[in-house]
Amino acid sequence: MIKQLSYRPSVIAYTIVLRAYGQVGKVKLAEQVFLEMLEAGCEPDEVASGTMLCAYARWGHHKAMMSFHSAVRERGITPSPAVFNFMLSSLQKKSLHKNVLEIWRHMMDDKVVPDHFTYTVVICSLVKEGLADEAFRNFAEMKNLGYVPEEATYSLLITLSIKIGKNAEALDLYGEMRSHKIIPSNFTCASLLTLYYKSGDYPRALALFNEMVRYGIVADEVIYGLLIKIYGKLGLYEDARMAFEETRTLGLLVDEKTYTTMAQVHLNFGNVDKALSLIEELKSKNILLSRFTLHILLQCYVMLEDVASAETTFHAISKTGSPQCSSCNVMINLFMKLDLMDKAREFILQIRDHQIEFDELLLKTVMRVYCKEGMLTEAVKLTEELSRIEPFEKSTFVQTFLLAVQDGRREAEIISSLPSEKINLLALELILDLYIETKDFVEAERIFKLLLGTSNGLSVASQLITKFCKQGDARKAEYLFHLLIEQGQQAEDAACGSLITLYGKQQKLEDAQKFFATVAKSCQGRTNLYRWMVATYIKCHKVDEAYLFYKEEIQEGNDFGPVAISMLVNALANTGKFREAEDAIHKSFQSGLKLDTVAFNTFIKAMLDAGKLRFAASIYDRMVSQNITPSLQTYNTMISVYGRGRNLDKAVKIFDIAQSRGIPLDEKAYTNMICYLGKAGRTQAASFLFNKMQEEGIQPGKVSCKVMIKIYATAGLYNEVEEIVLRMRRNGCPPDSDTYLVLIQAYANASKHLEGEQVIIEMQREGIQPACAHFNVVLVGYTRTGLTKEAERVYGELGKLGLTPDIECNRSMLRGYMEAGQVEEGIMFFERVGGPKDRFMMSAAVHLYESAGLKERAAVVLSSMRREDIPFLKNLEVGSCRKKIEDRMMTTGS
Which residue ranges run through the membrane (predicted)? Predict the structure, then answer.
């Protein structure tokens, strides 16, 4: 050691040795040197003590470090800020947050000025120890001293704010962080996405995800899971599915929650098989299914009405603990839906025996079973039991039910005095249901009178009638109407309409007519009754009777209303009764009926379908003159009116008017306009509009892409067609059989026959079976240019794919032989080919036979054509294609 040297000891020398030992991990030797320094009478200074503290911190000797630090403090030595930071960092790495805060408080006591790093470490430990107020106080101090916090610090405090319910503060912190141009981490993004999801702020969630993409922030499985949930809530099924598949492709798909999140989305969109497939995938990975996953599996089987599998899954849920109310609820609803009432009763008995804690939804479901089955005793017993415990003590359902079933004047007075919001509609409905089901009409009438005696009783009764109608129970609804009439009351219009609507669904037109006659005079909203009656006539497929009904009512001077007349005209037009539709339109104009936008739209569309384009245009002019605001549908229909009438300038003008009025045009409007531009041969204008639609943020769908492909194909612009097909694939909308047909036509128009054949091969690779129509386009291309050998080769491919050539393909081949002057081949083909032969084929055969000098055979075919009354085509010419080619060659040569 230093003592062995002929050298007067000093603190500096010892400090150098301490640092050397500390850097290589010789902590024991460093301790010996420090003791030797003390024995030599050298008083350690701030540097020596700090060096020793750093050695302890560097090598994780935290207990020794804490003891040494206490000893140093007792000597009145205060380490430098750098040493404090080193100790704090070392302690935090080992999650010794209490020790971090102890050192921090010593630091404050010793009046050591913290720096940016100190605050970063300390705030983290304060958050980890749940000291929120102190964390935010130090965060404020940090900023007051001019320090800009790091992303990690902001992230911790954002997450903490969300955890303690301070959502606004969390968003403020994020805004502050972004103002410093700090890019958020995926952890911060996950916290904010969770906040947006729970608060239902889905647009901001998607905006944040777009921001992540823009800044290259890599999403993890948690973020993808949240994104799938959000897409599901917004109804964006395809986006949710693509996000899930992207998670799989990136190798992030590990957590059961991500699978179950996507399974729930599949389920919500009715794709039960896909939801089941994901759960099966989980099982194949030997992942033990959680209660949540089992509940989703249960919902799948319920939707499939697979009782056995649902019962097995419910049993599996029961093994994980007491079943949830929601699981019990779906099981009972399944039994009720399938009318398995014995199973429903048995199931309820089981959950009662196992003392499952009810929520209000499960209670109401169980009460439906009891009341439907006439189980009054069980219903009363259950409600009495639950009325004594939370949360049912204040339940309006329980209170209403118990008061109503007690046949007494006092109870009746109590119910009569209750405000409408305190009377539970479902409770009264179920009691009525129970008494009607058991044919206890005395009690049913008592309950109904009790109901009418309450404030707003008539409205509640009308709602009950409406409910019974929605459930398809006309018998109960009629019974309640009968009771109302006995009490001198008239049901509300909505209740009347619901019964008329139910009659329509049940195809009971006569009942609807009788009921209309009963209530029409006393009904306040007669125009609404017309609407429901017209709908009933239409549902009963009696459009003619609906028209007669309309004429009778307007002859009596009654106001039919815009909705009813709109429904009637639409029905007449849809069934091809355009004269009657036009008559109804004229009558509505003559009577001065106040029409709305929907009615005018219906009128215009009806006359468009009828081919009355001038009248349709005049209806639009009337609409504008009456200051009725046109809708997007109006403009779209008028584009069709002018487009079909070949008045393209006016169609373009309508399109421009819609844009100038700020109406957000949709894909349908753009496609409609593009279609008519294409039909007029204005390919460039159509292309411009197609591109403009995309610039407006409207993604072209399959229909608009097909329209544009067809326009390009007609113009022979196969490169543009290829570009759209490629774009369709990129957007997850692969081309179908029709799209490929148009692509082949584009190649054919540009004389690119081999490329057309390649498309057919590509179709097969993608699992799309080519049809005769696809081959026929290629056949026509070859035969028109006299390449009959190539056409024969393509024709032969039909049989290899198991396709029987249709009449179009046979016609193309025969035309090719005839026009190429290949008489012998043409005759052989005609005689060999089976199936029906049309006017062209038979006429071509006659010409070929005559050209070969086979007059008798020609006469046989002609005779057959006369017998079948098929006109003969005289103007066909054998060898016309060859002559054209020879003429072209001679012209080129000269």
Answer: none
